[in-house]
Write a structure and sequence with these properties.
The complex is a heterodimer of chains A (about 350) and B (about 270).
Chain A (H helix, E strand, L loop, with lengths): L5 E10 L2 E11 L4 E5 L6 H9 L6 E6 L2 E2 L10 E4 L11 H5 L10 H14 L15 H13 L5 E5 L7 H18 L2 E6 L2 H7 L2 E6 L2 E6 L1 H6 L4 H6 L4 E8 L2 E4 L3 E4 L6 E7 L5 E2 L9 E12 L3 E8 L6 E6 L12 E6 L5 E4 L1
Parallel strand pairs in A: 3-8, 3-9, 6-7, 7-8
Antiparallel strand pairs in A: 1-2, 1-4, 4-5, 9-10, 11-12, 11-14, 12-13, 14-20, 15-19, 16-17, 16-19, 17-18
Helix pairs in contact in A: 3-4
Chain B lengths: L3 H25 L16 H7 L2 H34 L5 H9 L6 H15 L6 H25 L4 H8 L4 H30 L2 H6 L6 H8 L6 H32 L10
Helix pairs in contact in B: 1-11, 2-11, 3-6, 3-8, 3-10, 6-8, 7-8, 8-11
The complex binds adenosine-5'-triphosphate and magnesium ion.
The site of adenosine-5'-triphosphate has 12 residues of chain A, from β2 and α1.
Chain lengths: ~350, ~270
């Protein structure tokens, strides 16, 4: 197998006395759909722009396809960037925007026009070439920006929150299209986003960043099931945290009782449970591994799902439980008693 | 009607401000050589007389020379300053930009006198049209910067980066993307600097050597009462040209704002 397409070794970035990037090591494989996920200000854009060449790292080495990129300006890197604002040239038509990167190529006029039309076709904008760009909708501008970057057939396409300006429906549609486009062209995509759902849906692998540092790098499933830290667990989806005491290979969990947890040193910490791993038990349901009882303190109805906040007897804070709304299954009322089934295998342990 | 009192006040205010200018064309077409009411009759004699004065043509040529070069200098320098101010961060930016904008509030007579001292006593270069150009560039630059600032502010900074990302060099990105988008601002700045320089009297009066500019020439005419109607005619033409140029400048400024798809944040007209 060939080496990684992008390889960062000990890359740092300072702005004056502020350190935007802690020493970062990162390998991204060719053909991967890779996401940088993190809250606002964590340094995602800085990392992306460092790869693109718009920021010079304060330390460390950036390699693209094995070549050291030190001193290589953005226009000579095999990367293209889709800007958050799209950066569509307002004085040029759609075709002129998409064909902008071909200005320096030696292709004939007809070849260039064909390449532009092909790129427009890839993003579903056939025939839009002669139109001015200022009349286009947000989704269309997004597609123009994509076509403009893809026409150069970069080794790596960098996308800085490309969907954050779109409304929910359009965003979900574009998520699917981006995924399809990436499979079709086979180019490595690096997506910056602060939307954990978007990252989970689209990525092969995700790097979760906090305060200039990669906290965890894993596949979406591993990230969701086995978050390394409480911070990551909290950022990805919903996680219930319950205080726990670990003694003699078992854990005493507030509200849930004692479970066997071998290979755990004595001490204190918390355990995490995802809302869907807990279930409210209705009469006649199969008896699950473990059962706890408590009061329903809040009911949130979503149509397909209902979220219950249940405070277990002996616990301080309620936990959130998500239940599918099946036909013939009643929705519990606030204040009702609930029997809740849970599975010790779903527990994630976070030691203090 | 709501705000009726204020409206009336505004009307009277504007009348007092601009009435003298309305008098210019009134007397320029009046057949009496004495500037007084009642008006006598209609004539274009004073305008005809303008065409025959040799010294006037010289002054006009001087003024155009000064105004054109001032407009170009002031716009070029203004563009550098505006681009740096809007798109880059550097130490001491606030004070530096403040210093550049200072001539806006500096009394012209002070600029004139100090430049006179510098030109003659310090540099010893004597007076010429170029000393006037230097001074006019100084006072026009804040206006150019103000106009170009809004042109650059309306510009998304990532546009130039996008062009670089797509393979162009820094300079060609500027030429291909930034320049066309700020062109309306450049035209507006050039026209306004041209107009300011063309009309400027105090500095030109102090710094003029043997070659008077148009306003200085007009001032010298005023000493001869029988020439006053000619001055009125000339003044009428100047006002007309100034209004025309400012209108064109504002047209381009607005078009620039519209082109970049931004909100209009006010202008000069
Ligand atoms: N040119 C700069 N000068 C100084 N500080 C900067 C500069 N660029 C970014 N920063 C700082 O570096 C940190 C990381 O910025 P960055 O833009 O990478 O964040 P981000 O994760 O992309 O956030 P967002 O989701 O808001 O875009 C922020 O605290 C920001 O204020
Ligand atoms: Mg960002």
């Amino acid at each position: 197998m060939s080496g990684p397409i992008i390889s960062l070794t000990g890359v740092t970035k300072h702005y004056g006395s502020f350190q935007a990037l802690q020493p970062t090591d990162l390998d991204i494989q060719s053909g991967e759909f890779f996401s940088l996920l993190g809250p606002s200000g964590c340094g995602k854009t800085t990392l992306l722009r460092t790869i693109a060449g718009f920021e010079t790292p304060s330390g460390g080495v950036v390699r693209i396809d094995g070549a050291d990129m030190a001193g290589v300006p953005p226009n000579r890197r095999p990367t293209n960037l889709v800007f958050q604002s799209y950066a569509i040239f307002p004085h040029l038509s759609v075709a002129e925007n998409v064909g902008f990167g071909l200005r320096r190529s030696t292709q004939s006029k007809a070849e260039k026009a064909a390449a532009v039309e092909e790129a427009l076709g890839m993003v579903g904008l056939e025939g839009y070439g002669p139109r001015p760009t200022h009349a286009m909708s947000g989704g269309q501008r997004q597609r123009v920006a994509l076509a403009r970057a893809l026409i150069l057939k970069p080794k790596v396409l960098l996308l800085d929150e490309p969907l954050s300006a779109l409304d929910k429906k359009l965003r979900e549609q574009m998520q699917g299209e981006l995924r399809r486009l990436q499979r079709q062209v086979g180019i490595t995509f690096i997506l910056v986003t602060h939307d954990q759902e978007e990252a989970l849906i689209m990525s092969d692998r995700i790097a979760v960043m906090f305060e200039g540092q990669i906290a965890q790098l894993a596949t979406p499933e591993a990230l969701y099931r086995q978050p390394d830290t409480r911070q990551v667990a909290d950022f990805i989806g919903v996680m219930n945290f319950l205080p726990a005491q670990f003694v003699d290979g078992s854990a005493e969990i507030a509200g849930l009782g004692r479970v066997d947890l071998p290979d755990n040193e004595d001490g204190s910490g918390v355990v995490g449970l995802r809302p869907e791993t807990l279930q409210v038990l209705y009469d006649g349901a199969d008896a699950p591994a473990r059962i706890a009882e408590g009061d329903v303190v809040e009911v949130t109805y979503y149509g397909d799902m209902t979220y219950y906040d249940v405070r277990f007897d002996g616990a301080d804070k309620p936990v959130t439980i998500s239940m599918k709304n099946l036909a013939g299954r009643a929705v519990l009322e606030r204040g009702a008693r609930a029997r809740v089934g849970w599975d010790p295998r779903a527990l994630v342990v976070f030691r203090d | 009607m709501k705000g009726g009192g204020l409206r009336l006040y505004a009307l009277i205010y504007l009348l007092f401000l601009y009435a003298p200018i309305i008098l210019l064309p009134l007397f320029a077409f009046n057949s009496s050589s004495i500037i007084a009411f009642p008006l006598q009759g209609f004539t274009t004699e004073w305008f005809a007389e303008l065409t025959g004065v040799e010294a006037l043509h010289g002054a006009l040529k001087n003024s155009l020379f000064v105004a054109v070069i001032t407009a170009v200098f002031s716009t070029c320098l203004g563009m550098f300053a505006a681009r740096a101010g809007v798109m880059h961060q550097f130490p001491g930016k606030g004070p530096i930009m403040g210093l550049i904008m200072l001539p806006l509030v500096l009394p012209e007579v002070i600029v004139a006198v100090s430049l006179l001292v510098v030109a003659i006593n310090v540099l010893g270069i004597g007076l010429s049209l170029w000393t006037i150009i230097a001074a006019h560039t100084l006072i026009c630059m804040p206006f150019s910067i103000a106009i170009l600032n809004s042109a650059f502010q309306n510009l998304d900074a990532s546009l130039e980066e996008a062009a670089v990302d797509l393979g162009e060099s820094r300079w060609s990105s500027f030429r291909l993307v930034t320049l066309p988008l700020v062109m309306p601002g450049i035209i507006a700045s050039t026209l306004i600097a041209f107009t300011i320089s063309l009309d400027e009297f105090i500095i030109a009066f102090f710094l003029t050597g043997g070659e008077p500019t148009l306003p200085v020439y007009i001032w010298s005419l005023l000493r001869f009462p029988q020439r006053v109607p000619v001055v009125m005619a000339l003044g009428t033409l100047l006002v007309a040209v100034s209004i025309l140029l400012l209108t064109i400048a504002e047209f381009y400024r607005r078009r620039g704002v519209r082109r970049s798809g931004q909100q209009d944040h006010g202008g000069f007209l």
